[in-house]
Amino acid sequence: MPGSPTYNPHRSYSSKGAIIGGVAAGAAVVGGLLYWKHHNRTKLQGCLSGSGDRLVSEKDSKTYSLTNQQDETLKPGERVELLGKKAKADSGEPTFEVHKMSKDLGSCTATSAANR
To answer: Each residue of 2-16: pLDDT tens digit?
Structure first.
């Protein structure tokens, strides 16, 4: 038959399949790591108290000691949403490592933040 492909029994596709599989697996690992890095953050919303180094959470009414404020100007009485990681200090007090101030939500009274 003219124009039909010829059969070659010695041709192997396994090396190309292994390369394609390796590239796909590597891309999946890199994508997973990037997703974990960018989505493994906690949002904490509440009112600042103290000298701007404590946050009273609206969600669980806990007072978190703020660390690593990254030169953010956090003032008592501000209502903010922060991105970062929750942790516990050696004293057992809940702390929050601030990575970024996500939103400035206006102001709240310092007395209501202290009462929570």
So the answer is: 666 666 666 655 567
Q: Which residues contact 79 (CB under 8 A, 6 or more apart)?
A: 45, 46, 47, 48, 104, 105, 106, 107, 108
C-beta separation of 57 from 115 below 8 A:
no
Q: Which amino acid is at 40?
A: N
Q: Look at the domain 42-115 and name its fold.
A: OB fold (Dihydrolipoamide Acetyltransferase, E2P) (2.40.50)
Domains of the chain by residue range:
42-115
Q: What is the pTM of this model?
A: 0.55
Question: What is the distance between the alpha carbons of residues 75 and 61, in angstroms, rounded to a whole number?
Answer: 19
SS (H, E, C) 36-75: HHHHCCEEEEEEEECCCCEEEECCCCCEEEEECCCCCCCC
pLDDT tens for each residue of 49-80: 887 788 888 888 888 888 875 666 777 888 88
